[in-house]
TrEMBL record:
Species, as recorded: Dendrobium chrysotoxum (Orchid)
Family: Belongs to the glycosyltransferase 92 family.
Major subcellular location class: membrane
Protein name: Glycosyltransferase family 92 protein
GO molecular function: glycosyltransferase activity
Skewed-composition ranges (Basic and acidic residues): 1-19
Residue span of region Disordered: 1-28
Protein backbone atom coordinates (compact mmCIF):
# COMPACT_ATOMS: atom_id res chain seq x y z
CA UNK A 1 0.00 0.00 0.00
CA UNK A 2 2.81 2.23 1.02
CA UNK A 3 4.48 1.46 -2.32
CA UNK A 4 1.28 2.33 -4.20
CA UNK A 5 1.02 5.66 -2.42
CA UNK A 6 4.64 6.32 -3.29
CA UNK A 7 3.85 5.56 -6.91
CA UNK A 8 0.87 7.91 -6.79
CA UNK A 9 3.00 10.66 -5.31
CA UNK A 10 5.61 10.05 -7.94
CA UNK A 11 2.99 10.31 -10.69
CA UNK A 12 1.66 13.59 -9.22
CA UNK A 13 5.19 14.95 -9.23
CA UNK A 14 5.57 13.95 -12.87
CA UNK A 15 2.18 15.48 -13.68
CA UNK A 16 3.26 18.70 -12.02
CA UNK A 17 6.45 18.63 -14.03
CA UNK A 18 4.58 17.59 -17.17
CA UNK A 19 1.94 20.21 -16.37
CA UNK A 20 4.65 22.79 -16.56
CA UNK A 21 5.74 21.31 -19.86
CA UNK A 22 2.12 21.09 -21.03
CA UNK A 23 1.66 24.79 -20.26
CA UNK A 24 4.67 25.62 -22.31
CA UNK A 25 3.30 23.63 -25.24
CA UNK A 26 -0.08 25.42 -24.98
CA UNK A 27 1.54 28.84 -25.12
CA UNK A 28 3.66 27.73 -28.08
CA UNK A 29 0.55 26.50 -29.86
CA UNK A 30 -1.20 29.87 -29.35
CA UNK A 31 1.86 31.73 -30.55
CA UNK A 32 2.01 29.55 -33.64
CA UNK A 33 -1.66 30.14 -34.39
CA UNK A 34 -1.24 33.93 -34.09
CA UNK A 35 1.85 33.90 -36.31
CA UNK A 36 0.09 31.82 -38.92
CA UNK A 37 -2.93 34.18 -38.94
CA UNK A 38 -0.60 37.19 -39.27
CA UNK A 39 1.15 35.46 -42.17
CA UNK A 40 -2.17 34.85 -43.93
CA UNK A 41 -3.19 38.49 -43.45
CA UNK A 42 0.11 39.77 -44.84
CA UNK A 43 -0.16 37.37 -47.75
CA UNK A 44 -3.68 38.59 -48.52
CA UNK A 45 -2.59 42.24 -48.45
CA UNK A 46 0.41 41.43 -50.64
CA UNK A 47 -1.88 39.65 -53.10
CA UNK A 48 -4.18 42.70 -53.37
CA UNK A 49 -1.27 45.00 -54.06
CA UNK A 50 0.34 42.59 -56.48
CA UNK A 51 -2.87 41.94 -58.38
CA UNK A 52 -3.43 45.67 -58.74
CA UNK A 53 -0.70 45.69 -61.34
CA UNK A 54 -1.89 42.59 -63.17
CA UNK A 55 -4.06 42.72 -66.26
CA UNK A 56 -7.12 40.52 -66.28
CA UNK A 57 -8.74 39.89 -69.66
CA UNK A 58 -6.98 42.96 -71.03
CA UNK A 59 -8.26 45.35 -68.34
CA UNK A 60 -5.93 47.03 -65.85
CA UNK A 61 -7.19 47.22 -62.27
CA UNK A 62 -5.99 49.72 -59.70
CA UNK A 63 -6.91 50.09 -56.05
CA UNK A 64 -9.49 52.83 -55.45
CA UNK A 65 -10.10 54.48 -52.08
CA UNK A 66 -13.81 55.13 -51.67
CA UNK A 67 -15.31 57.48 -49.07
CA UNK A 68 -17.27 55.87 -46.28
CA UNK A 69 -20.02 58.50 -46.60
CA UNK A 70 -22.44 58.93 -49.47
CA UNK A 71 -23.23 62.27 -51.07
CA UNK A 72 -27.03 62.38 -51.50
CA UNK A 73 -26.66 64.67 -54.50
CA UNK A 74 -24.39 62.38 -56.49
CA UNK A 75 -25.06 58.84 -57.56
CA UNK A 76 -21.71 57.27 -58.40
CA UNK A 77 -22.38 54.44 -60.80
CA UNK A 78 -18.71 53.64 -61.32
CA UNK A 79 -15.43 55.29 -60.52
CA UNK A 80 -13.41 53.64 -63.27
CA UNK A 81 -13.39 54.85 -66.88
CA UNK A 82 -12.05 52.51 -69.55
CA UNK A 83 -11.15 53.68 -73.01
CA UNK A 84 -14.45 54.11 -74.83
CA UNK A 85 -15.38 53.34 -78.40
CA UNK A 86 -15.31 57.08 -79.08
CA UNK A 87 -11.71 57.34 -77.85
CA UNK A 88 -10.72 54.20 -79.71
CA UNK A 89 -12.16 55.72 -82.85
CA UNK A 90 -10.22 58.91 -82.28
CA UNK A 91 -6.96 57.16 -81.50
CA UNK A 92 -7.14 54.48 -84.18
CA UNK A 93 -9.80 54.27 -86.85
CA UNK A 94 -10.07 57.98 -87.65
CA UNK A 95 -6.34 58.61 -87.80
CA UNK A 96 -4.86 58.98 -91.25
CA UNK A 97 -1.16 58.39 -91.94
CA UNK A 98 -0.75 62.17 -91.87
CA UNK A 99 -2.27 62.36 -88.38
CA UNK A 100 -5.54 64.00 -89.43
CA UNK A 101 -8.80 62.77 -87.94
CA UNK A 102 -12.44 63.78 -87.75
CA UNK A 103 -13.20 64.15 -84.07
CA UNK A 104 -16.90 65.00 -84.35
CA UNK A 105 -19.54 65.71 -87.02
CA UNK A 106 -22.77 67.65 -86.43
CA UNK A 107 -25.59 67.98 -88.96
CA UNK A 108 -27.36 71.37 -89.23
CA UNK A 109 -30.44 72.16 -91.36
CA UNK A 110 -28.29 73.36 -94.27
CA UNK A 111 -24.80 71.95 -93.67
CA UNK A 112 -22.60 69.52 -91.77
CA UNK A 113 -19.86 70.77 -89.48
CA UNK A 114 -16.76 68.61 -89.04
CA UNK A 115 -14.37 69.16 -86.13
CA UNK A 116 -10.84 68.13 -87.01
CA UNK A 117 -7.70 67.26 -85.10
CA UNK A 118 -4.94 68.37 -85.33
CA UNK A 119 -6.22 71.91 -85.67
CA UNK A 120 -3.65 73.01 -88.27
CA UNK A 121 -5.19 70.76 -90.90
CA UNK A 122 -8.55 72.53 -90.97
CA UNK A 123 -7.44 75.19 -93.47
CA UNK A 124 -6.28 72.80 -96.19
CA UNK A 125 -7.47 73.93 -99.61
CA UNK A 126 -9.44 71.74 -102.05
CA UNK A 127 -11.08 69.62 -99.38
CA UNK A 128 -13.95 67.47 -100.58
CA UNK A 129 -16.77 66.10 -98.46
CA UNK A 130 -17.49 62.42 -99.04
CA UNK A 131 -20.96 61.08 -98.18
CA UNK A 132 -21.82 57.41 -97.73
CA UNK A 133 -25.57 57.18 -98.19
CA UNK A 134 -25.90 53.46 -97.51
CA UNK A 135 -24.18 50.71 -95.57
CA UNK A 136 -21.89 50.05 -98.53
CA UNK A 137 -18.71 52.12 -98.49
CA UNK A 138 -18.60 51.85 -102.29
CA UNK A 139 -21.72 53.99 -102.81
CA UNK A 140 -20.91 57.63 -102.08
CA UNK A 141 -21.33 61.26 -103.11
CA UNK A 142 -18.50 63.79 -103.33
CA UNK A 143 -19.02 67.57 -102.95
CA UNK A 144 -16.57 70.43 -102.36
CA UNK A 145 -16.38 71.79 -98.81
CA UNK A 146 -18.16 75.10 -98.24
CA UNK A 147 -15.55 76.59 -95.94
CA UNK A 148 -12.78 75.75 -93.49
CA UNK A 149 -11.16 77.58 -90.61
CA UNK A 150 -7.79 76.98 -89.00
CA UNK A 151 -8.79 79.16 -86.03
CA UNK A 152 -11.71 76.89 -85.16
CA UNK A 153 -10.43 73.61 -86.66
CA UNK A 154 -13.74 73.22 -88.49
CA UNK A 155 -14.77 72.26 -92.00
CA UNK A 156 -18.29 73.00 -93.20
CA UNK A 157 -19.80 70.68 -95.79
CA UNK A 158 -23.05 71.02 -97.76
CA UNK A 159 -25.99 68.92 -96.67
CA UNK A 160 -26.70 66.18 -99.22
CA UNK A 161 -30.20 66.23 -100.69
CA UNK A 162 -32.68 63.49 -99.78
CA UNK A 163 -30.39 61.90 -97.21
CA UNK A 164 -31.69 61.61 -93.67
CA UNK A 165 -28.98 59.22 -92.50
CA UNK A 166 -25.46 59.19 -93.86
CA UNK A 167 -21.83 58.91 -92.87
CA UNK A 168 -19.39 61.60 -93.88
CA UNK A 169 -15.66 61.84 -94.52
CA UNK A 170 -13.09 64.17 -96.10
CA UNK A 171 -10.53 63.78 -98.82
CA UNK A 172 -7.89 65.90 -100.54
CA UNK A 173 -5.50 65.21 -103.38
CA UNK A 174 -2.46 65.03 -101.09
CA UNK A 175 -4.17 63.19 -98.23
CA UNK A 176 -5.90 59.82 -98.04
CA UNK A 177 -9.63 59.69 -97.44
CA UNK A 178 -10.52 59.67 -93.75
CA UNK A 179 -12.74 56.96 -92.28
CA UNK A 180 -16.40 58.07 -92.31
CA UNK A 181 -18.32 59.16 -89.22
CA UNK A 182 -22.05 59.41 -88.46
CA UNK A 183 -23.10 63.06 -87.79
CA UNK A 184 -25.04 63.99 -84.66
CA UNK A 185 -28.14 66.21 -84.82
CA UNK A 186 -27.55 69.84 -83.86
CA UNK A 187 -31.01 70.19 -82.31
CA UNK A 188 -30.55 67.21 -79.98
CA UNK A 189 -27.13 67.68 -78.48
CA UNK A 190 -25.07 68.77 -75.49
CA UNK A 191 -22.81 71.13 -77.38
CA UNK A 192 -20.69 73.01 -74.82
CA UNK A 193 -19.73 72.93 -71.15
CA UNK A 194 -17.77 75.00 -68.65
CA UNK A 195 -16.21 74.06 -65.32
CA UNK A 196 -16.94 76.95 -62.95
CA UNK A 197 -13.97 76.97 -60.60
CA UNK A 198 -15.64 79.31 -58.11
CA UNK A 199 -17.99 76.63 -56.84
CA UNK A 200 -16.73 73.58 -58.77
CA UNK A 201 -19.99 73.23 -60.67
CA UNK A 202 -20.29 72.29 -64.32
CA UNK A 203 -22.45 74.40 -66.65
CA UNK A 204 -23.80 72.43 -69.61
CA UNK A 205 -25.31 73.96 -72.75
CA UNK A 206 -27.70 71.56 -74.47
CA UNK A 207 -30.45 71.51 -77.08
CA UNK A 208 -33.26 69.00 -77.01
CA UNK A 209 -35.18 69.51 -73.77
CA UNK A 210 -37.13 72.56 -75.03
CA UNK A 211 -37.33 74.51 -71.78
CA UNK A 212 -39.52 77.60 -71.61
CA UNK A 213 -38.05 81.06 -72.30
CA UNK A 214 -37.30 83.51 -69.49
CA UNK A 215 -38.32 81.03 -66.79
CA UNK A 216 -36.57 78.66 -64.46
CA UNK A 217 -37.46 75.01 -64.90
CA UNK A 218 -37.57 72.37 -62.19
CA UNK A 219 -34.00 71.06 -61.84
CA UNK A 220 -35.23 67.94 -60.07
CA UNK A 221 -36.56 66.66 -63.40
CA UNK A 222 -33.04 66.25 -64.77
CA UNK A 223 -29.66 64.82 -63.91
CA UNK A 224 -26.24 65.46 -65.37
CA UNK A 225 -24.13 62.64 -66.76
CA UNK A 226 -20.32 62.48 -66.88
CA UNK A 227 -18.66 59.72 -68.86
CA UNK A 228 -16.63 58.54 -71.82
CA UNK A 229 -19.29 56.38 -73.41
CA UNK A 230 -22.95 56.99 -72.54
CA UNK A 231 -23.96 53.69 -74.14
CA UNK A 232 -22.38 51.98 -71.12
CA UNK A 233 -24.07 53.45 -68.01
CA UNK A 234 -21.80 51.60 -65.60
CA UNK A 235 -18.91 53.73 -66.85
CA UNK A 236 -20.74 57.00 -66.12
CA UNK A 237 -21.47 59.26 -63.18
CA UNK A 238 -24.72 61.06 -62.53
CA UNK A 239 -24.98 64.22 -60.47
CA UNK A 240 -27.56 66.69 -59.23
CA UNK A 241 -28.83 69.50 -61.45
CA UNK A 242 -28.81 72.72 -59.42
CA UNK A 243 -30.59 74.92 -61.97
CA UNK A 244 -32.21 74.51 -65.38
CA UNK A 245 -33.15 77.42 -67.60
CA UNK A 246 -33.51 77.67 -71.38
CA UNK A 247 -30.54 75.65 -72.69
CA UNK A 248 -28.38 76.06 -69.58
CA UNK A 249 -27.97 73.41 -66.86
CA UNK A 250 -25.76 73.90 -63.81
CA UNK A 251 -24.68 70.67 -62.09
CA UNK A 252 -22.59 69.51 -59.18
CA UNK A 253 -19.27 68.19 -60.43
CA UNK A 254 -18.49 64.75 -58.96
CA UNK A 255 -15.45 64.74 -56.67
CA UNK A 256 -13.77 62.00 -58.67
CA UNK A 257 -14.06 64.14 -61.81
CA UNK A 258 -12.46 67.11 -60.05
CA UNK A 259 -9.65 64.89 -58.80
CA UNK A 260 -9.10 63.45 -62.25
CA UNK A 261 -9.05 67.00 -63.63
CA UNK A 262 -6.29 67.97 -61.21
CA UNK A 263 -4.23 64.89 -61.99
CA UNK A 264 -4.77 64.88 -65.77
CA UNK A 265 -5.95 68.31 -66.98
CA UNK A 266 -5.98 67.21 -70.61
CA UNK A 267 -8.28 64.23 -69.96
CA UNK A 268 -11.87 65.11 -69.19
CA UNK A 269 -15.06 63.14 -69.84
CA UNK A 270 -18.03 64.15 -71.94
CA UNK A 271 -21.01 65.64 -70.14
CA UNK A 272 -24.69 65.57 -70.92
CA UNK A 273 -28.18 65.91 -69.43
CA UNK A 274 -31.09 63.50 -69.25
CA UNK A 275 -34.55 63.33 -67.76
CA UNK A 276 -34.77 61.39 -64.54
CA UNK A 277 -36.53 58.07 -64.81
CA UNK A 278 -35.97 54.46 -65.71
CA UNK A 279 -34.79 53.99 -69.26
CA UNK A 280 -34.03 57.65 -69.90
CA UNK A 281 -30.89 58.20 -71.96
CA UNK A 282 -28.61 61.27 -72.05
CA UNK A 283 -28.54 63.66 -74.96
CA UNK A 284 -25.72 62.87 -77.39
CA UNK A 285 -22.74 65.01 -76.46
CA UNK A 286 -19.63 66.60 -77.90
CA UNK A 287 -19.18 68.72 -74.78
CA UNK A 288 -16.12 68.35 -72.57
CA UNK A 289 -16.00 70.99 -69.80
CA UNK A 290 -13.44 73.71 -70.36
CA UNK A 291 -11.92 75.64 -67.47
CA UNK A 292 -12.21 79.35 -68.13
CA UNK A 293 -10.22 80.51 -65.12
CA UNK A 294 -7.83 79.05 -62.60
CA UNK A 295 -8.26 79.29 -58.83
CA UNK A 296 -5.11 81.43 -58.62
CA UNK A 297 -6.76 84.15 -60.65
CA UNK A 298 -9.52 84.40 -58.09
CA UNK A 299 -7.04 85.89 -55.64
CA UNK A 300 -6.47 89.03 -57.69
CA UNK A 301 -7.47 92.17 -55.75
CA UNK A 302 -8.90 93.91 -58.82
CA UNK A 303 -10.04 93.09 -62.33
CA UNK A 304 -7.99 93.99 -65.36
CA UNK A 305 -10.76 95.76 -67.29
CA UNK A 306 -13.47 98.16 -66.20
CA UNK A 307 -15.57 97.66 -69.33
CA UNK A 308 -15.84 94.73 -71.77
CA UNK A 309 -18.32 93.88 -74.50
CA UNK A 310 -19.81 90.54 -75.60
CA UNK A 311 -21.57 90.10 -78.91
CA UNK A 312 -22.73 87.37 -81.25
CA UNK A 313 -22.65 87.94 -84.99
CA UNK A 314 -22.88 86.39 -88.41
CA UNK A 315 -21.31 87.96 -91.51
CA UNK A 316 -20.83 91.39 -89.94
CA UNK A 317 -17.13 91.83 -90.71
CA UNK A 318 -17.73 94.90 -92.91
CA UNK A 319 -19.31 96.75 -89.96
CA UNK A 320 -16.88 95.58 -87.29
CA UNK A 321 -14.15 98.20 -87.64
CA UNK A 322 -16.44 101.18 -87.08
CA UNK A 323 -18.14 99.53 -84.13
CA UNK A 324 -14.95 98.42 -82.36
CA UNK A 325 -12.79 101.48 -83.08
CA UNK A 326 -15.53 103.81 -81.84
CA UNK A 327 -16.24 101.90 -78.64
CA UNK A 328 -12.55 101.40 -77.93
CA UNK A 329 -12.07 105.16 -78.13
CA UNK A 330 -14.85 105.81 -75.61
CA UNK A 331 -13.59 103.27 -73.07
CA UNK A 332 -14.33 99.61 -73.96
CA UNK A 333 -11.15 97.67 -73.17
CA UNK A 334 -11.83 94.05 -74.08
CA UNK A 335 -14.02 92.27 -76.64
CA UNK A 336 -15.56 88.79 -76.78
CA UNK A 337 -16.94 88.04 -80.23
CA UNK A 338 -18.99 84.86 -80.73
CA UNK A 339 -18.99 83.94 -84.42
CA UNK A 340 -22.25 82.28 -85.43
CA UNK A 341 -21.26 80.67 -88.77
CA UNK A 342 -19.78 83.64 -90.59
CA UNK A 343 -18.35 82.99 -94.04
CA UNK A 344 -16.95 86.48 -94.66
CA UNK A 345 -13.46 87.75 -93.77
CA UNK A 346 -14.13 88.09 -90.03
CA UNK A 347 -10.84 86.54 -88.94
CA UNK A 348 -8.80 88.90 -91.14
CA UNK A 349 -10.68 91.96 -89.85
CA UNK A 350 -10.13 90.92 -86.23
CA UNK A 351 -6.44 90.33 -86.89
CA UNK A 352 -6.17 93.72 -88.58
CA UNK A 353 -7.76 95.50 -85.62
CA UNK A 354 -5.24 93.94 -83.28
CA UNK A 355 -2.28 94.62 -85.56
CA UNK A 356 -3.14 98.27 -86.23
CA UNK A 357 -4.89 99.33 -83.02
CA UNK A 358 -3.73 96.72 -80.46
CA UNK A 359 -7.36 96.09 -79.51
CA UNK A 360 -7.91 93.01 -77.34
CA UNK A 361 -10.41 90.78 -79.14
CA UNK A 362 -11.22 87.16 -78.35
CA UNK A 363 -12.87 85.48 -81.33
CA UNK A 364 -14.85 82.43 -80.26
CA UNK A 365 -16.42 79.95 -82.68
CA UNK A 366 -20.07 79.42 -81.73
CA UNK A 367 -21.81 77.57 -84.60
CA UNK A 368 -24.96 76.52 -82.72
CA UNK A 369 -28.16 77.85 -84.28
CA UNK A 370 -30.47 80.16 -82.36
CA UNK A 371 -28.40 80.05 -79.16
CA UNK A 372 -27.76 83.72 -78.41
CA UNK A 373 -28.91 83.39 -74.81
CA UNK A 374 -26.65 80.40 -74.20
CA UNK A 375 -23.76 82.17 -75.92
CA UNK A 376 -24.19 85.25 -73.75
CA UNK A 377 -24.26 83.07 -70.62
CA UNK A 378 -21.07 81.36 -71.79
CA UNK A 379 -19.50 84.77 -72.42
CA UNK A 380 -20.52 86.08 -69.00
CA UNK A 381 -18.60 83.21 -67.41
CA UNK A 382 -15.56 83.89 -69.61
CA UNK A 383 -15.55 87.60 -68.85
CA UNK A 384 -16.22 87.36 -65.13
CA UNK A 385 -12.63 87.08 -63.92
CA UNK A 386 -11.19 89.96 -65.96
CA UNK A 387 -14.10 92.40 -66.48
CA UNK A 388 -15.87 94.46 -63.85
CA UNK A 389 -18.69 95.46 -66.22
CA UNK A 390 -19.80 93.73 -69.44
CA UNK A 391 -22.09 95.15 -72.10
CA UNK A 392 -24.18 92.85 -74.27
CA UNK A 393 -24.84 94.75 -77.47
CA UNK A 394 -25.01 94.04 -81.20
CA UNK A 395 -22.75 95.32 -83.96
CA UNK A 396 -25.42 97.83 -85.08
CA UNK A 397 -25.76 99.32 -81.57
CA UNK A 398 -23.60 102.22 -80.34
CA UNK A 399 -23.37 103.73 -76.87
CA UNK A 400 -23.86 107.51 -76.89
CA UNK A 401 -23.52 110.13 -74.13
CA UNK A 402 -25.68 113.18 -75.03
CA UNK A 403 -24.36 115.27 -72.14
CA UNK A 404 -20.70 114.44 -72.85
CA UNK A 405 -20.30 112.16 -69.85
CA UNK A 406 -17.50 109.61 -70.08
CA UNK A 407 -18.20 105.87 -70.03
CA UNK A 408 -15.64 105.21 -67.29
CA UNK A 409 -17.08 108.01 -65.14
CA UNK A 410 -20.55 106.48 -65.40
CA UNK A 411 -19.28 103.01 -64.52
CA UNK A 412 -17.15 104.21 -61.61
CA UNK A 413 -20.10 106.11 -60.24
CA UNK A 414 -22.29 103.00 -60.10
CA UNK A 415 -19.38 100.82 -58.96
CA UNK A 416 -19.58 102.67 -55.63
CA UNK A 417 -22.98 101.07 -55.04
CA UNK A 418 -22.42 97.35 -54.38
CA UNK A 419 -26.09 96.46 -54.93
CA UNK A 420 -26.27 97.92 -58.46
CA UNK A 421 -25.56 95.10 -60.89
CA UNK A 422 -27.22 96.15 -64.16
CA UNK A 423 -27.44 99.41 -66.10
CA UNK A 424 -30.44 99.26 -68.43
CA UNK A 425 -29.88 101.59 -71.35
CA UNK A 426 -32.62 102.84 -73.66
CA UNK A 427 -32.38 102.09 -77.38
CA UNK A 428 -33.36 104.53 -80.14
CA UNK A 429 -34.00 102.79 -83.48
CA UNK A 430 -32.76 104.56 -86.60
CA UNK A 431 -34.13 104.11 -90.11
CA UNK A 432 -32.63 104.33 -93.63
CA UNK A 433 -32.72 108.14 -93.37
CA UNK A 434 -33.55 108.56 -97.07
CA UNK A 435 -30.65 106.42 -98.29
CA UNK A 436 -30.85 103.62 -100.84
CA UNK A 437 -27.23 102.45 -100.60
CA UNK A 438 -25.05 101.77 -97.60
CA UNK A 439 -23.22 104.92 -96.41
CA UNK A 440 -19.45 104.59 -96.97
CA UNK A 441 -18.78 106.87 -94.00
CA UNK A 442 -20.38 104.36 -91.63
CA UNK A 443 -23.70 104.07 -89.85
CA UNK A 444 -23.15 106.73 -87.17
CA UNK A 445 -22.65 109.47 -89.74
CA UNK A 446 -24.81 107.93 -92.49
CA UNK A 447 -28.08 107.50 -90.58
CA UNK A 448 -29.58 110.37 -88.60
CA UNK A 449 -33.36 109.89 -88.57
CA UNK A 450 -35.07 107.65 -86.03
CA UNK A 451 -38.34 106.54 -84.51
CA UNK A 452 -39.49 108.83 -81.69
CA UNK A 453 -40.29 106.36 -78.86
CA UNK A 454 -37.59 103.98 -77.64
CA UNK A 455 -38.18 100.31 -78.51
CA UNK A 456 -36.39 98.50 -75.69
CA UNK A 457 -33.25 98.56 -73.58
CA UNK A 458 -29.90 96.75 -73.54
CA UNK A 459 -27.79 96.06 -70.48
CA UNK A 460 -24.36 96.54 -68.99
CA UNK A 461 -23.97 94.09 -66.12
CA UNK A 462 -21.59 92.99 -63.38
CA UNK A 463 -20.98 89.36 -64.34
CA UNK A 464 -20.29 88.25 -60.76
CA UNK A 465 -23.79 89.43 -59.73
CA UNK A 466 -25.72 87.22 -62.15
CA UNK A 467 -28.17 84.61 -60.98
CA UNK A 468 -26.39 81.22 -60.97
CA UNK A 469 -28.90 79.95 -63.55
CA UNK A 470 -27.46 82.51 -66.02
CA UNK A 471 -30.97 82.97 -67.42
CA UNK A 472 -31.15 85.92 -69.84
CA UNK A 473 -33.56 87.36 -72.39
CA UNK A 474 -32.98 90.08 -74.98
CA UNK A 475 -29.54 91.04 -73.68
CA UNK A 476 -30.35 91.29 -69.97
CA UNK A 477 -29.88 88.75 -67.19
CA UNK A 478 -31.63 87.73 -64.02
CA UNK A 479 -29.65 88.91 -61.01
CA UNK A 480 -28.76 87.39 -57.66
CA UNK A 481 -31.07 88.10 -54.75
CA UNK A 482 -30.32 91.51 -53.25
CA UNK A 483 -28.93 92.94 -56.49
CA UNK A 484 -30.82 95.53 -58.50
CA UNK A 485 -30.84 97.30 -61.86
CA UNK A 486 -30.87 100.99 -62.70
CA UNK A 487 -32.67 102.55 -65.65
CA UNK A 488 -30.21 104.98 -67.17
CA UNK A 489 -31.30 108.56 -67.75
CA UNK A 490 -31.47 109.15 -71.53
CA UNK A 491 -29.61 112.43 -70.99
CA UNK A 492 -26.67 110.48 -69.58
CA UNK A 493 -26.40 107.37 -71.79
CA UNK A 494 -28.44 105.87 -74.62
CA UNK A 495 -27.89 103.37 -77.42
CA UNK A 496 -28.26 104.36 -81.04
CA UNK A 497 -29.58 101.21 -82.69
CA UNK A 498 -29.14 101.33 -86.46
CA UNK A 499 -31.76 98.67 -86.89
CA UNK A 500 -33.51 99.62 -90.13
CA UNK A 501 -30.65 100.29 -92.51
CA UNK A 502 -30.78 100.40 -96.32
CA UNK A 503 -32.58 97.45 -97.81
CA UNK A 504 -29.51 95.62 -99.10
CA UNK A 505 -28.27 95.40 -95.50
CA UNK A 506 -31.59 94.97 -93.72
CA UNK A 507 -32.76 92.04 -95.86
CA UNK A 508 -30.00 89.90 -94.36
CA UNK A 509 -32.18 89.69 -91.25
CA UNK A 510 -34.42 87.34 -93.22
CA UNK A 511 -31.70 84.70 -93.27
CA UNK A 512 -31.93 83.67 -89.63
CA UNK A 513 -32.20 85.20 -86.16
CA UNK A 514 -29.65 84.17 -83.56
CA UNK A 515 -31.92 84.45 -80.51
CA UNK A 516 -33.42 81.16 -79.36
CA UNK A 517 -36.92 82.42 -78.69
CA UNK A 518 -37.22 85.03 -81.47
CA UNK A 519 -39.04 83.84 -84.58
CA UNK A 520 -37.24 84.07 -87.89
CA UNK A 521 -38.48 86.75 -90.25
CA UNK A 522 -39.82 84.17 -92.70
CA UNK A 523 -41.99 82.54 -90.03
CA UNK A 524 -45.52 83.80 -89.60
CA UNK A 525 -45.14 84.12 -85.83
CA UNK A 526 -45.18 87.10 -83.46
CA UNK A 527 -45.60 89.48 -86.39
CA UNK A 528 -46.23 92.37 -83.99
CA UNK A 529 -42.99 91.83 -82.05
CA UNK A 530 -40.49 94.65 -81.64
CA UNK A 531 -37.94 92.29 -83.15
CA UNK A 532 -39.64 92.79 -86.50
CA UNK A 533 -40.11 95.77 -88.77
CA UNK A 534 -43.67 97.09 -88.39
CA UNK A 535 -45.85 96.13 -91.34
CA UNK A 536 -43.05 94.39 -93.24
CA UNK A 537 -44.44 90.84 -93.19
CA UNK A 538 -42.45 87.67 -93.77
CA UNK A 539 -41.14 88.14 -97.32
CA UNK A 540 -37.78 89.67 -98.22
CA UNK A 541 -39.42 92.05 -100.69
CA UNK A 542 -38.37 95.71 -100.51
CA UNK A 543 -41.28 98.11 -99.90
CA UNK A 544 -41.33 101.02 -102.35
CA UNK A 545 -41.04 103.57 -99.52
CA UNK A 546 -38.42 101.73 -97.47
CA UNK A 547 -35.82 104.55 -97.68
CA UNK A 548 -38.16 106.98 -95.96
CA UNK A 549 -39.61 104.71 -93.29
CA UNK A 550 -38.88 104.91 -89.54
CA UNK A 551 -38.07 108.61 -89.70
CA UNK A 552 -39.82 110.68 -87.03
CA UNK A 553 -36.99 112.53 -85.27
CA UNK A 554 -33.89 114.02 -86.88
CA UNK A 555 -31.23 113.05 -84.33
CA UNK A 556 -27.72 114.17 -85.30
CA UNK A 557 -26.17 114.20 -81.83
CA UNK A 558 -23.84 111.21 -82.22
CA UNK A 559 -23.19 112.05 -85.87
CA UNK A 560 -21.94 115.52 -85.00
CA UNK A 561 -19.74 114.27 -82.15
CA UNK A 562 -18.15 111.57 -84.33
CA UNK A 563 -17.32 114.10 -87.06
CA UNK A 564 -15.73 116.32 -84.46
CA UNK A 565 -13.80 113.64 -82.53
CA UNK A 566 -12.80 111.09 -85.17
CA UNK A 567 -12.14 112.85 -88.49
CA UNK A 568 -8.45 113.06 -89.36
CA UNK A 569 -7.70 116.80 -89.78
CA UNK A 570 -5.11 116.08 -92.46
CA UNK A 571 -7.08 113.69 -94.66
CA UNK A 572 -10.65 114.43 -93.64
CA UNK A 573 -11.26 110.67 -93.34
CA UNK A 574 -12.77 108.63 -90.54
CA UNK A 575 -10.54 105.83 -89.16
CA UNK A 576 -12.86 103.10 -90.44
Amino acid sequence: MRGRRADDASMKDRRRRDGGGGGKFSRSSSSFTFSFALFLLCFALFSVVALSTFRLFGVSFQPVLLPTWRNPTMNAISGEYPLSRRDLRASNSNLSPAGLRIEEAVAFPDSVLLFLKPQSFAAIANLRCIYFLSQSTESHLSLPALSSSSASSCVRCPLPLKADVFNISLSETTLPQLPPILPLRSDHLAYAAVLDTRDNTTVIFAKGHNLRPARLSNPNSFECIFGWDFSHPKFSLSSEVLSAAQEIFRCRTPLSILQRRRNSPSIFPFVSVRFKGHGSIPLPSIARPETLSSPQKLQRPSKAHLMCVCTMLRNQARFLQEWIIYHSRIGVERWFIYDNNSDDDLEQVVQGLFTQWRIMISLHEWPWLKTQEAGFAHCALRARESCKWVGFIDVDEFLYFPSNFKLHDVLRNYSRSPSVAELRTTCHSFGPSGRKTAPPEGVMVGYSCRISPPERHKSIIRPEALNPSLINVVHHFHLKDGMRFVNMDVRVMVINHYKYQVWEVFKEKFHRRVATYVADWQDDENVGSKDRAPGLGTKAVEPSDWANRFCEVNDTGLRNWVLQAFVDPNTGHLPW
